[in-house]
Amino acid sequence: QVQLVESGGGLVQAGGSLRLSCVASGIIFRINHIRWYRQAPGKQRELVAAITNTGTTTYVDSVKGRFAISRDNAKNTVYLQMNSLKSEDTAVYYCKSVLAATGTAYWGKGTLVTVSS
After folding, report:
1. Sequential DSSP letters for 50-103
2. For residue 5, which of 33, 34, 30, 31 has the smallest C-alpha distance?
3. What's the pLDDT at 17?
4. What does the pLDDT read at residue 85?
5. Per-residue pLDDT tens for 10-38?
6. What is the b/e burial string over 44-74, where b = at least 16 CB atoms within 10 angstroms of the residue's CB?
7. Mean pLDDT, range 44-71, rounded to an integer
8. How many beta carbons lie within 10 A of that of residue 42, not counting itself?
9. Rounded distance between C-alpha atoms, residue 10 and residue 17, angstroms
10. Are the CB atoms for 83 and 19 separated by under 8 Å?
């Protein structure tokens, strides 16, 4: 059974930091790309950051220089370090695994990040 479990969300003041974690089980983690998405109230889900199975990273423009995605294949875990948080970063953050060879994808259930101004 495949599971992706996000954690690390919470309430933080603007300018603060949080580190989100996504722990995967039931997949061969090292051959999956991992993506972080977020969905703010009343808005569509958007891709925030991604890391390929080989470690290449990409970010949406709004978080460049503030967020950093990384992975630890030994722990089946991807992290999203979020610094200089803004109120507009408030959202539910989801991780998604994408098998590099086939595109088979799985989602986590999300973790809520609330940034107070």
Report:
1. EE-TT--EEE-GGGTTTEEEEEEGGGTEEEEEE-S--GGG-EEEEEEEEETTT-
2. 34
3. 98
4. 98
5. 999 999 999 999 999 999 999 999 999 99
6. eeeebbbbebeeeeebeeebeeebbbebeee
7. 98
8. 5
9. 10
10. no
CA-to-CA distance for 117 and 106, rounded, in angstroms?
Answer: 33
Dihedral angle over CA of 24, 60, 12, 55, nearest 10: 40
Which residue do the tokens 């991807």 mark? Answer: 78
Give the pLDDT band of residue 110 (cuts 50, 70, 90): very high
Count Cα atoms within 13 angstroms, Cβ side, for 58.
10
Q: Which amino acid is at 69?
A: I
Q: With H, G, I as helix, E, B as strand and everything else as coil, classify residue 112.
A: strand
Amino acid at 82: M
